[in-house]
User: Which sequence fits this backbone?
């Protein structure tokens, strides 16, 4: 019995390590490629896992070819804006739907549910036409706008506010606090966890977005990182070292952020999926 | 929902002020474009030319459009092959990292890395690994196997993209399962263990039934996502969808026909509508299948 | 180029290196509102948009503009340059938003949808511009005439044939004369066969599947007279595709040709796995730096053709139909494309003028003994009969249709005849819808 338990444990760790190689290995391989110098053959058989003479030359090289730091800044601008607008818009709307009583509340809630059912992919062409009519195409504003208050986030916030016990607000009502004061002072601080979830998912969704910026941006100086990397891949696919450096630049900040916030990530996915 | 006793104290316009930003965005950038898409799908609008009403012609054209059928086939295949993997593999993974054993936190976090990286990044990484002279073919070569044209053959390209989708989703769905598994009472497993039930039997008779609703949820989420696949295939097979365009997916077709200087906005809108209807039906089917089993 | 819609015309301006430039905000004059008569006074502020020329020819254009403004003191020209990529998207956004620059650099395939949408001026209908028609070669002017739209929509500007590079060493190894590259398709297929046999299928001659220009050069009739139907499925077209299929089977066409884009083809040529590849002047420096052995053995020729007429790429300058200072815009577009200025531009870069008589100048007829001189004179001679094979009504989508059907035929999933019949049927349907 005991021996089989030890074997079981060994087996578990063996499988864990195998999955680790599969999930993280590709990133390390890319990192290794990005550090290999021009003179080092990257096509050797068998592949050499560690660079012989690590160099940062490719990072400089990729910045010479595409303004990769500008693209990163564009992506960051879009992502941060997206986080802010989603936090504000979704918590306001969620609070109204959950805690305020007024005529038309059900209709308003229905609008958000309907919006949730419309996949972005099926309206991109119409959104593009709309942006052109508004004379906003080829701007970062146009990249942000369609997702700046996600229906999903509104419903998440509604659920979060809806679960707060009513007693918390009652005292404030008696004290004569108005709606805004109750929202800011009492309700918001009680849903910090969900706010973190909304923030993280807005950031990732925006940083990740490819189809929409690809369609709406035409000026290469305004590209976000994903569209810029696609350009890099298409134009310099011969130089894998450069492409590797570009991808590492794109992925490193996210992995760093994830490492710091992983507690919230895990809670977030659980909550988002189970309650959303 | 219970009544808010504060209802009388706020002035009547304020709920709408709270809702305004959200509703405005939803109305202008989701609901209006959707209605516009419906309208355009009955016209022959082009990027630079306003459309005329053409009735159902776009939908009739679709029936004769080889590219549409290819794209529909690919998107459907994507669902058929990707979804079973994203429902099962992450569950097994979750079981693996569920017990509080040493380093398990590290493994959980590490398995989540592909989710954090953007799809463009991981597609480029895979492109390099699957290259004729990349890592995978390097390993195959060392094992004495010839180079496999992962990125040169239409079918292999599509399967490679599917593998990427599954790989990228592993961590995400794993966490969802972890949240569900946390609610399964430990005693159930222990009791079964004492009974001498094997791992496979415990999995089938205890784990699966207890996370069944989560499996349905994961199935619904991943089938909708798989049907709408764009980035993975676009990046691996190229904008025109691999050799002879045979890897084109529906959303790729929408993007290709609807944009550009002479883009066929009307036809692309009709294609968009098909995407919408099928995702909706898919979602309902999966959810209904889940509910149906529950009643039995 | 990545999201390349319509790779070939863009490849053709390859002289224009895809350089990522800093942002240039586009501020076209006012926008909207009818536009003025072209017969008015040559005065006002106009905008002039080029396609990826700033990086290399900044001084030339600034000088040109200064000179024009001196001749017409009432006109101010604002020069805007766009990067190589996404130019079509940029134009489409401008056209839809009513912010089209007054004078805009277009190729015929870009001009067509713009002309159809009514955002370009019909130059034959405006007396102010129609009078200049005679200054250009008839072929160049006709290249910008749009079927069904009665007239030319752009002043012809510079021309290019697009060189075809070949690897002399590979030719020699296969027992072929490295100084006699194939001139006709018969020679091309014979050489490719020899190359494949000699190398045991290791060295291909071509890296890309045939595009519409190849059908044109082969002597296939591409469209009917009024450009309302495609005809490249005629027996001659099927014959070409059949020969390509044999080439593919024998290894004369690179095995990855079906998925190769211009970048991949170029790479194969660089690695000396493919003996011939179309390119641009910009590739030369790339070869020099990254493949010195190839550079030493580099031959430059023109794409083979059976018609005696090589393919040419035509650049033009269109006039926005809503321009508020149309007279000034026309005067400026003519100024840029007149004989003197076209010739001086062509002295700076390996392109060719489209003005009548220019190619008879000694610069393009007398070999000065240098490599460049020899190439230039040879190319100028070819250009005299050159035509733009790509039908302007052929949208990117129709090009993709052809590309896909060709791929199916090469894979053996369809007979060449069936593939071309299907391509023509699909393209005709697209054409009717437009």
Assistant:
């Amino acid at each position: 019995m005991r021996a089989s338990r030890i074997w079981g444990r060994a087996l578990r760790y063996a499988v864990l390590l195998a999955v680790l190689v599969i999930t993280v290995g590709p990133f390390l391989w890319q990192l290794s490629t990005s550090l290999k110098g021009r003179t080092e053959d990257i096509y050797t058989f068998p592949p050499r896992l560690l660079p012989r003479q690590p160099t940062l030359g490719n990072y400089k090289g990729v910045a010479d070819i595409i303004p990769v730091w500008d693209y990163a800044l564009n992506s960051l601008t879009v992502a941060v804006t997206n986080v802010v607008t989603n936090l504000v818009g979704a918590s306001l709307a969620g609070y109204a739907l959950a805690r305020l009583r007024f005529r038309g509340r059900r209709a308003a809630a229905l609008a958000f549910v309907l919006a949730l059912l419309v996949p972005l992919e099926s309206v991109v062409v119409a959104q593009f036409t709309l942006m052109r009519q508004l004379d906003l195409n080829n701007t970062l504003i146009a990249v942000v706008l369609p997702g700046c208050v996600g229906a999903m986030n509104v419903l998440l916030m509604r659920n979060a506010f809806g679960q707060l016990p009513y007693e918390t607000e009652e005292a404030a009502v008696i004290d004569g606090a108005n709606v805004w004061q109750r929202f800011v002072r009492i309700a918001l601080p009680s849903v910090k966890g969900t706010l973190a979830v909304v923030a993280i998912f807005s950031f990732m969704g925006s940083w990740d977005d490819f189809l929409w910026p690809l369609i709406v941006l035409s000026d290469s100086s305004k590209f976000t990182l994903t569209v810029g990397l696609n350009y890099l891949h298409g134009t310099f696919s011969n130089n894998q070292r450069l492409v590797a450096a570009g991808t590492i630049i794109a992925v490193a900040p996210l992995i760093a952020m994830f490492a710091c916030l992983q507690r919230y990530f895990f809670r977030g996915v659980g909550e988002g999926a189970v309650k959303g | 929902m219970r009544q808010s006793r504060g209802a009388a104290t706020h002035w009547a316009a304020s709920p709408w002020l709270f809702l305004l930003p959200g509703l405005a965005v939803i109305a202008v950038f989701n609901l209006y474009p959707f209605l516009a898409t419906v309208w355009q799908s009955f016209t022959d609008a082009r990027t630079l030319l306003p459309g005329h009403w053409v009735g159902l012609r776009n939908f009739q054209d679709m029936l004769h459009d080889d590219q549409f059928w290819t794209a529909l086939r690919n998107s459907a295949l994507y669902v058929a092959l990707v979804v079973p993997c994203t429902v099962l593999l992450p569950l097994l993974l979750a079981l693996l990292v569920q017990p509080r054993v040493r380093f398990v936190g590290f493994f959980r976090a590490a398995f989540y890395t592909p989710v954090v990286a953007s799809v463009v990044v991981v597609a480029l990484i895979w492109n390099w690994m699957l290259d004729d002279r990349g890592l995978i073919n390097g390993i195959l070569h060392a094992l004495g196997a010839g180079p496999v044209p992962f990125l040169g053959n239409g079918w292999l390209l599509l399967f490679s993209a599917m593998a990427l989708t599954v790989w990228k989703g592993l961590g995400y769905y794993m966490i969802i399962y972890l949240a569900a598994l946390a609610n399964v009472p430990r005693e159930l497993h222990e009791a079964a263990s004492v009974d001498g039930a094997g791992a496979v039997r415990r999995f089938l008779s205890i784990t699966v039934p207890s996370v069944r609703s989560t499996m349905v949820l994961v199935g619904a989420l991943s089938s909708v996502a798989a049907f709408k696949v764009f980035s993975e295939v676009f990046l691996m097979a190229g904008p025109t969808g691999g050799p002879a365009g045979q890897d084109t997916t529906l959303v790729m077709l929408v993007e290709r026909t609807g944009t550009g200087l002479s883009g066929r906005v009307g036809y692309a809108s009709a294609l968009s509508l098909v995407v919408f209807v099928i995702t909706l039906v898919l979602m309902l089917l999966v959810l209904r299948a889940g509910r149906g089993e529950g009643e039995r | 180029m990545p999201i390349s819609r319509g790779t070939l015309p863009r490849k053709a301006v390859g002289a224009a290196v895809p350089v990522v430039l800093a942002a240039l905000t586009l501020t076209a004059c006012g926008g909207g509102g009818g536009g003025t008569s072209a017969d008015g006074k040559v005065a006002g502020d106009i905008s002039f948009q080029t396609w990826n020329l700033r990086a290399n020819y900044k001084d030339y254009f600034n000088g040109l503009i200064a000179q024009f403004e001196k001749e017409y003191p009432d006109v101010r020209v604002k020069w805007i340059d766009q990067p190589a990529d996404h130019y079509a998207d940029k134009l489409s956004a401008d056209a839809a938003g009513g912010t089209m620059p007054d004078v805009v650099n277009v190729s015929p395939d870009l001009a067509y949808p713009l002309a159809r949408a009514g955002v370009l001026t019909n130059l034959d209908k405006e007396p102010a511009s129609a009078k200049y028609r005679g200054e250009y070669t008839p072929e160049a002017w006709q290249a910008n005439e749009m079927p069904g739209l009665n007239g030319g929509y752009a002043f012809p500007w510079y021309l290019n044939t697009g060189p075809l590079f070949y690897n002399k060493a590979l030719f020699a190894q296969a027992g072929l004369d490295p100084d006699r590259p194939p001139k006709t398709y018969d020679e091309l297929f014979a050489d490719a066969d020899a190359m494949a046999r000699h190398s045991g299928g290791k060295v291909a001659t071509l890296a890309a599947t045939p595009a519409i220009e190849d059908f044109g050069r082969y002597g296939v009739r591409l469209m009917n007279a009024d450009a309302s139907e495609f005809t490249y499925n005629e027996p001659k077209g099927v014959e070409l595709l059949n020969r390509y299929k044999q080439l593919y089977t024998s290894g004369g066409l690179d095995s990855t040709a079906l998925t190769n884009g211009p970048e991949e083809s170029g790479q194969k040529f660089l690695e000396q796995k493919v003996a011939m590849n179309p390119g641009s002047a910009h590739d030369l420096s790339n070869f020099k730096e990254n493949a010195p052995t190839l550079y030493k053995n580099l031959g430059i020729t023109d794409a083979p053709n059976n018609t005696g007429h090589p393919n040419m790429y035509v650049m033009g300058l269109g006039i926005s139909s809503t321009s508020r200072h149309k007279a000034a815009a026309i005067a400026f577009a003519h100024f840029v494309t007149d004989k003197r200025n076209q010739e001086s531009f062509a002295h700076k870069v390996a392109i060719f003028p489209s003005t009548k008589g220019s190619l008879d100048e000694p610069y393009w007829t007398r070999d000065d003994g240098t490599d460049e001189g020899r190439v230039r004179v040879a190319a100028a001679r070819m250009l005299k009969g050159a035509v733009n094979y790509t039908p302007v009504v052929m949208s990117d989508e129709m090009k993709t249709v052809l590309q896909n059907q060709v791929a199916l035929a090469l894979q053996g999933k369809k007979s060449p005849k069936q593939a071309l019949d299907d391509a023509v049927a699909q393209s005709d349907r697209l054409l009717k819808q437009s």
Q: What stands out?
A: The mean pLDDT of chain B is 85. Chain B touches chain A through 97 residues (CB under 8 Å). The longest helix of chain B spans residues 66-97. The CA atoms of residues 114 and 168 of chain B lie 5 Å apart.
